[in-house]
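Write out the 3D structure for:
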Amino acid sequence: MDLTVIAYVIYLVVSIALTVWVARTLSHNGRVFLADVLRGNEQLADAVNHLLVVGFYLVNLGFVALFLTDSGDVDDARGIFEALSIKLGVVLLVLGAMHLGNVYVLNKIRRRGMMEREQQPPVSPQGWIPPTVGA
């Protein structure tokens, strides 16, 4: 069997496993954060969480598939490790960037929601008092 094919198989198995692990971790731990962002609406938090996971899979697995090709042949075991280290390193950086992007956007939404809640008075206005003259 060609060493390049072995490198491709190892790359695909490890990349897909990493993508699935990161997506499950983010989905499980991000649900609480989403519920807070969406003001306790659990059903909406679950729906948004599922959509984010699907998008995460599509983008990352698409990137893994596009990054599969290699310009050179792998001639020995050292070449396998060199090719895998570059490819998996880039995949990990993309996974991390996607995670940070999601957290940044959700934090912006959360902050906006917190600002809206703080602007509402704790007690509804009960009447209007005209300003006094000379005050």
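The chain has a mean pLDDT of 83.
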